[in-house]
Amino acid sequence: GQNIDQPTEMTATEGAIVQINCTYQTSGFNGLFWYQQHAGEAPTFLSYNVLDGLEEKGRFSSFLSRSKGYSYLLLKELQMKDSASYLCAVRRQAGTALIFGKGTTLSVSS
Amino acid sequence: EAGVVQSPRYKIIEKKQPVAFWCNPISGHNTLYWYLQNLGQGPELLIRYENEEAVDDSQLPKDRFSAERLKGVDSTLKIQPAELGDSAVYLCASSRQGQSETQYFGPGTRLLVL
Q1: Is A103 within 8 Å of B42 when comparing Cβ atoms?
Q2: Binning pLDDT at 50, 70 and 90, where does residue B100 land?
Q3: Are B18 and B80 in contact (CB under 8 A)?
Q4: Relative to the CA of B68, which of A14, A78, B14, B59 has its CA 20 to 30 Å away?
């Protein structure tokens, strides 16, 4: 079966750095995506990794190791508005649907 | 560029009643997805369209769910009859063929079946 694991909850303070880990076991790999989802809203695209290494985009960075089936999302200079659920998703083949983890709920406090 | 549009945003119905959801994808996106999201879970695929063709409907409960994408643009997802367990958020997403094929999601329809 397909399996994507990420922590259920994390907490952090404003201005800090937080790393959300994701491990996956899937039959096939064609890319890993991170989405942010605020309560009651649609998932919004954050990052995409298909090759090993780090992708940086402003305060957010995402890392992928295909050999280890591992990714992380790094959020720097945390703000209150970063409180949300972060979804890790894998695409097994080009053009197919994403398989999502259950999401990590991040709470940022002042 | 307008995003994925869905309606209605909220729907409350009694069990055994029919319900329909509508989605208009981002212009130029040939692939359309319907996902189901339960509380505290990630989205799960119901059906995927390439243009007007349903290419993956293996997870769609076909005894009560149906979908169509006439003319390969907007799409409708229907449930008839609805059951209590169908209460969830129904998300529509679209993507364009290309390197990343990033999926962009609509705001979803939150369904409550009483």
Answers
A1: yes
A2: confident
A3: yes
A4: B14
